[in-house]
Amino acid sequence: MRRLISAPWFYTLIAAIIVSYAGATSSHAHEDHCAAVASSVEEAGFSDSVTVTCTETDAIIQSLTYPDHELMTGITGTNEQVPVPADYAAPINLTPTLGGTPLTRDAALGVAVNGVPIYDYTGGGEMSQADLAHHQAQHDTLQTGQLDVCGGHAGRGDDYHYHVAPTCMMEAMDNADENPIIGWAFDGFPIYGDANPDGTPIAADTLDVCNGQLDEEFGYRYHTSPDAPYIVQCLMGEIANFDSLPRVRPLEAEAGGGAAPGTPPRGGVENLVFSQGNDGTRSMDYTYQGDDYFIRYKPSETSDCYDYTTQTVTNDGALHTGTYCR
């Protein structure tokens, strides 16, 4: 759902930002912007698993949202969901233009150069206009133990995505020492790490409410940051088809009906480990109040389907089996 930030007090809060950004657009022509998106993926070393194709309006970054780095390690506040590959096509606007109204969304705001979606830092649904100006500690996925050591987790659709800086991906990038673009927001503006593109530190109070600032090359850019909001919090650019931006399709039982989302075990779990076997089996094992639990799946004979065996806190430790599909 599209949410426009329209409260009068909010405009007062960001009035200086809007005035300074008025008329700012990307200096890149359509072809240059397409090349910039494609180059960011190739130079990072992810072109084997991520493709970029350009239309008249967008650069489409396509992937399976399943990164080649450690997954789920370090999570205590699990929702008992596991990462499952999902076809994902992220449209990056080729003619980015700053608007006057920040946009929020209860789904991804952009995508990393390894093809993994990037969300805002919260896990409580779409942020309201008041939420943007105040740290939402109770919904902070980092502070509540919901994220792994790489900055991501599996969401309600069993899709892996980032909520803060994707540190493992950033360390693995071929051009990691060049302060590179680490992702793109759907409005067409790039996402960088904690420093400016030239490597200089970002001065205090420079980043705006969406965690971005003006940029000489692209018109505007977003950043990650050590403190909340950690990464893109909202979109400062215009998007013509905002309501049509992609969402990962949740798993559904092969016989029909959706898979009920898990319920975070109160107080958190311990010793959570996610492993992958040579036969394609993937398993998340953990303990809760001294008892062992697990979620395991492997590819089914049916395309885009997976055979599950689970014993979860949500289901009171009962053993369940079933086949679920995208």
TrEMBL record:
Organism: Yoonia ponticola
Organism superkingdom: Bacteria
Name the UniProt record assigns to this protein: YHYH domain-containing protein
Lineage, highest ranks first: Bacteria, Pseudomonadati, Pseudomonadota, Alphaproteobacteria, Rhodobacterales
Signal peptide feature range: 1-29
Keywords: Signal
Domain YHYH: 92-195
Keyword Signal found: yes
A Pfam family: YHYH
